[in-house]
Batch of 2 targets.
Target 1
Amino acid sequence: MAESVRQLSALMRKEFLLEWRQRYALNGMLLYMVGAVFVCYLSFNARRGQLTPIVWNTLFWIILLFTAINAIAKSFVQERAGRQLYYYTLASPQQIILSKILYNTALMLVLAFLGFSVYAFVLGNPVNDVPLYLLTLVLGAIGFASSLTLVSGIASKAENPATLMAVLSFPVILPLLLMLLKVSKNALDGLDRSVSWSEIGTVLAIDAIVLTLSWLLFPFLWRS
Amino acid sequence: MKKNWWKALGVIILTYVIFRGLLGVVPRQPILNESIRNVYFHVPLWFSMIALLLTSAIYSIRYLRNGRLGDDLVAVEFANTAILFGLLGCLTGSIWANFTWGEPWPNDPKLNSVAIGMLMYMAYLVLRGSFDDEQRRGRISAVYNIFAFAVFIPLIFIIPRLTDSLHPGNGGNPAFGKYDMDNRMRMVFYPAIIGFILLGVWITELRVRFRRLKVALDD
């Protein structure tokens, strides 16, 4: 147990180091997020608080979705096949997928919180229940990271990973996205929290399903 | 004949279902009127689609366990038939919705969920198309197939029940069988489910045999 935790932390450390050494990729993603927010702001040409809450909320999650797909798509393509083979000789595939998911969750958290603050800054912040909204951001980051990591692993094996990543991930991510939209809309309207518990439960259940499946299926994926 | 009795059974059941479905006596409900007959066709199509997708996922799991290409072939053909049944289910549903709910595609969570599900399985076919190597294609698409099935089930069974839906049995509506169906209708409805599943298996079996012959001829 202690040994596997040590391996996991070593793999995580590798992911962070790799990202830190290729800072242009990280900066690119941050800029992508901010740029997307700004494009939406200018396209709607909205003065603060003019968007209706539904549009405000949906727009934010769609920006987050596209950022997530772009950010996570590269988690398997940025390293060469030979080097990946080397990792597989060092650690079990479960640890590799787990470290990637954890790393991507951290990345998504950074992107989501940054995106939220920029978005609220330029488009106004109509959220009534901010802690609950932040909780949906955390749940969304976990869910996006765990389902998209496996899908990016699948897509990276194919001929044109970029298109395939979008095609494969949109339908898979939609149930999660719909539930998140619902909870975050409740948070936005400042409804009583008891209204949202069942949806939060469903989001947690979907997260659990997706995590377990990634854990079970990834060993079959890397062998090819 | 010994091996093919189930095909005969399927034909007999479906003939019975079509005759009883179109000519049999049905209870007269408000709004539904004669369109209640669609319950013999629309609902069993969905049930058999789910059964076929489940079988497809099971064959994908088998493929991952033993690596026999035959299992992968069976899995993809079950998924193909399931997509066909899904499209037919959408079509019969549209006709029904047009007469009872006033428009062919009302904005209903169950319909949208199913549309997403169809997208998911079409993506599965696109994914298969993008590999040349058979083993690689088999393994990766099997992984996606299992993943897709596991997401499809909450999508079609849980989410519509949490939101407001026009469909019976969802969003607090009572299930269809509770008030609208009488025992005469059940005599047709339950066999119809079995009949459509048998038809789906038969179509799949023919396609699998065709594909096996093609593989044998190519070698």
Target 2
Amino acid sequence: MMKRQDFAGLPALIRLALRRDRTRLIVWFVVFTLMVVAIAAGNGDIDPAERLEMIRNTVTNPGMRIMLGPVNPEMVGNLGAFFLIRMSFLLTIVLALFSTGTVLRHTRHNEETGCHEMLGAMVTGRFAALSAAIIVAMLGNGLLGLGLIIGLLASGVVFTGTLIAGLTYVLLGFIFTGMAAVTAQLSSSTRGAAGLAHIGLAIVFMVNAIGNVSGTVLPDASGYDSAWPVWLSPMGWAQQVAPYDVARIELWLLFIVLFIGLIAAAGILVNRRDVGQGILAARAGKKTAAPWLKGSFGLVYKLERISFLAWFVPLIFIALIFGASSESYGSSMQDIDFFEEIFAASAAFFRFMLLSLGALAVTVFAVGTVLRLRAEENGGPLEAVLATPTHRSRVLLAQVLFAWVAAWLMMMVMALGIGVSAGVDAAGMAELIRAALRQYIGIVLVSGGAVACFGFLPRQATLLSWLVVGVAALTGPFLGPILNLPDVLQSFSPFTHIAIMPGEASHNILVLLILVAGVATGLGFLGFSRRNMAF
Amino acid sequence: MSVIEIKNLTKYYGKFKALDQINLTLNEGEVLGFIGPNGAGKTTTIRILLGLLRKSDGDVHLFGKDAWQDAVDIHRHIAYVPGDVHLWPNLTGGEVIDLFGRLGGGVDPARREALIRMFDLDPSKKCRTYSKGNRQKVGLIAAFASNAELIILDEPTSGLDPLMASIFQSCVEEAKQAGRTVLMSSHILADVEKLCDRVAIIRRGQIIETGSLSAMRHMTRNTLEVETVKPVEALHTVEGVHGLKAQGNHYVFELDHDKMDAVMQILVSHGLRHLNSSPPTLEALFMRHYGDDLSGKTKSRRSS
């Protein structure tokens, strides 16, 4: 059923994609390699005693295991292994974002803009565009893997293990490439396809986290073994390869089989749908608008509610699942005296950490929602909306308020979900809600920064805003310490000042953060009402 | 009171001068055709009128109010259809028409239904499934179903089939009858010729001609086709005669308007057997203005 002519034009399409992506690929490669070098150097500065301490922390604190992979005593003396297990979260996200972006850029996005129509009319086969996207994404993943290897070798890590590590993460990138190839067929919009792919990433991450959190601790508390759910997640496979230790390269087979399966699925789907359409056929809608769809606020609700639910529902589940599990670590650790005293504190810390981690996710939602207005402006319907008697500030206000109210709801429901499922008392619940509100300040601040970017630098707003989100996350209270960043850098993130635990943030700082958020947002409104529209 | 009043409008994009001292007036009840080659500044002018872009210099007033300062007030009286109609992919055409109606001054439900029927639009389809022409229909239905006093249309017929284009024409005529003012930019000269009371031609950011079509025609040449009994010696040397093509005693040439009388006397003295005089089409005007350099030199070279 697959013919040679189905791939006609493939070399030309690969060259086209490489030409379009040459700057993008180089930037990803250079930034990624520098990141690896910097982080590995930072980790190299940690002395063995401290490393042992960090490993102990991870073992005794299940909350830490959401972010960190399975640790063991060997890692004290091995920088590569130490680095890899601390970095696996970041590496996975980088590879997933890169792969999804690359595949969708050359498939679904091309169809959406109509470029695919022109290419399809030339001598190109049915599978050519998809294959070109996959091949370019694979090449890109190869480049990132090379960056990882170069970065680690530059820090003096042993060669064999590093090579295995690099190849393992390249294979993990292939999985995300395959996932994006499938989601590109399912949804008829780039945004929808990216959303589905990111949900896939979230599942991969969560399943692995569940496996690690519920792992069994080694008798001397010097490490832990992951539980079975990690075998359901490619991220878990990558961690279980343990390149510097047991080096289970036979696990590569799992990656290869799954990758081939995903590619085959994408190939079958691409054959069963029409160009420009998804697998799910568009249904007829309403002939008239609902009564509430009448102003900027109704419009934002109509446009954003699906996106809201796509974030809201998973967050509830995460809150319930991890909240419930926060109290159950006791059973697995009871027999170890060592844990008795720190257990109570650790369960609470785990809950606050969940909230703080959730706040990062909600920040991504809030900033994405604000930036949607930029997409409406640039080649979107905003021009026609502003030609009606709708004030610019009102359009922006509707967008920002939706983002903030939705974010507030998410934080509140998360706090309630964690509290209820963990069975905390009223005082504990109040503490959780206060913590959620504190985190909310950070969300408002970062999304306020996005409003300011949108108001003053519309063309750079998207890039700048995500840069701000990236900095706030990287220098924040999770990744900052893991990356071993100096305090000065860590102070860049509002979340560092907000802190994870109650009582660690000063009242004055919080007031200051609120003020900054207000000023940034206000400036954004001022800028937007005064500037040229940038189409 | 004039509905649109543009005085010495200049707009820079960085160092590039997109509009250079534009003057334009549009009176109540008028239909103005705004024509010019691609990139001449039509859309920029329209977006400044709508307060979407800021002018660099000059005065722009609609209904006596400043286009930038009072944009929202002005928009209560305006309906606008952009050249590229972008719609929300996950809303249906019917929902978008209602939404624009509610964002603007309201929609007349009976007129909405009638227009949907006339334009043969399926309002239950999601906008992502519409073709360019269908998206344009959504914009046009929303505009004509509104009660706006001024309708601004940026290349309204570029995606419509001929049948739909003629329905569009009847909509504009109806709007004109109702005393509404229309500003439309277009490349479809037949539309402009049929619908517009006045035409403004813009080129490289400058308005190079404005006026009623008949007045514009008076300023240019008619095409004459004549046959005489006796051959007319050296007709090509006569002042006002351009582009002479002779075949025996049959002559085709263009004639300057103010030399009509003198040339007629020469022709009559040679025994006029047949005469056909046709006014320049808009297309001819258009080609002359677009094709020529702004200096009058090339103008005469082209026609001689």
